[in-house]
Design goal:
The chain is of the alpha/beta class and about 140 residues long. The chain has one domain: Rossmann fold (3-Layer(aba) Sandwich), CATH 3.40.50. It is about 55% helix and about 10% strand. The protein has six helices and five strands. Strands 3-2-1-4-5 form a five-stranded parallel beta sheet. The model has no long low-confidence stretch (mean pLDDT about 95).
Length: about 140
């Protein structure tokens, strides 16, 4: 199992307004390939925090019905595990955030990954490269 970061789910869905740079189009293609693997049944883990990040971005790009359908496609799949994040985990993430040089929600992901014995993450966020035990996959 791998963790899937919010940016993968966002890049796979958001349509650029106008002509997008080649590097963005490359990331979009890789994000779509990752999502295709998940659609094919690859087991992944994410958190409510990361889904909230996705929702915040996609609310600006999708109609409510489209967003609802997209989230249903994530929330009701046997191969997508969504973990809750409570105040204790977030306090721990706040400490990791200070000492590791990664973002606060990235720290949430790293804690969940450690708890679940996961060492690989689908992400386009280079902050995860600061964690020597994490292997970041971009496809």
């Amino acid at each position: 199992m791998r963790f899937v970061d919010a940016n993968v789910l966002v890049y796979a869905v958001v349509r650029p307004k106008g002509a997008a740079p080649k590097d963005i189009m490359d990331i979009k293609a890789r994000a779509k390939a990752i999502v295709k693997r998940v659609d094919g049944g690859e087991p992944v883990l994410t958190s409510v925090v990361h889904l909230s990040e996705v929702a915040n971005v996609l609310e600006e790009h999708l109609k409510p019905k489209e967003l609802n359908e997209y989230f249903n496609s994530l929330l009701y799949r046997d191969n997508i595990v969504v973990r809750a994040v409570d105040d204790e985990l977030y306090r721990s993430a706040n400490d990791v955030f200070l000492t590791s040089g990664i973002g606060l929600n990235d720290a949430v992901a790293s804690i969940l990954m450690k708890r679940e014995g996961i060492e690989e993450i689908y992400s386009f966020d280079g902050h995860f490269d600061k964690l020597n035990w994490v292997r970041r996959l971009t496809m």
